[in-house]
Write a structure and sequence with these properties.
By secondary structure, the chain is mostly beta strands. The protein has 2 helices and 29 strands. The strands form 7 sheets. It has a 5-stranded antiparallel sheet, with no helix packed on it. It has a 4-stranded antiparallel sheet with strand order 2-3-4-5, with no helix packed on it. The N terminus and C terminus are likely disordered.
Length: 348
Amino acid sequence: MKTRFFILTLLMVSNLSILPCFAQYAAHTQFSLPEGAKARLGKGEINEITYSPDGSLLAVASSIGIWLYDAETYREVALLAGHTSSINSVSFSPDGTTIASGSDDGKIRLLDVVTGAVKDTLTNPIDQFGLDDVLSVLFSPDGSLLASRGWSEVHLWDVAAGTLKATLSTDPYLIASVSFSPDSATLASGSLDNTVHLWDVATGTLKATLREDTFLISTDWARSVSFSPDGITIASGSDDGKVRLWDIATGTLKDSLTGHTGRLLSVSFSTDGTILAGGSGKGTTYLWNVATGTLKDTLITEAGDVRSVSFSTDGKTLVSGGSWGAVHLWDVGTGMLKSMITVETGGA
């Protein structure tokens, strides 16, 4: 328990709970209840939000299940339950038919998006700390693999066979983030030592380690990594307050983006690769012009961490989620707030 507490404190993971502004509390307290239950108190804590590939759904990983929302109306479509502990992450398959979920119960569930039926259940191996928590899951762009991130290891799964293909480790450093290249050939992982590791997916071997020449020693996290759509660049956001753009071919630093303050907890490229969004630890989301490296817009909510940023499929909307207790949907072109999903705290 001491090890788990230390790691959780070090990573400082916080969660959210959401409720659409227009939804009635009474409605969701009765939504998809287990047999024998009369009501649900609160909607649970929220850990991650992602769009479906066609942009029609928003999936929300919470402490009680996966909430599916209509991306246009933000109304609840379904609640997919089954894990015995908090769900940390969700990921849609590229064809949009399957959703993967990772949980503190050490399980990875593959669910049919339409019916909610379980297609497969994978058991995460126990790591060097004696933990099997699944902190994030991510389908490869070609849909053949699923990456699951634990505290100190990343596991690559063959989706069709349901078998473990490879285990990637940056021991002794913990792993904070992962991202697949667009061609599914490379996996990037961000680590506690503020470096980015590039892995050959086919062989499971380390291809390169990205770090600044001035790097000596650090206890900062590379909190988030994201490949550009063309696969040429990778962005990393760090506790040291920097957003770095790396050249994948050479492993060299192309640019460090400025105009912001605070540690960067989440980064994401727009679908056309022209804009990079970064969520900070000060309730602010930044938009940069990738070509010029200049700050395009600053989207301010209130005090708190912006722990998740994600672009819609058409690139016109940015979703940001943070510890202040709401999810914001922004118009990328104007920088104006389009809508907000407010928090309803409470347990299952």
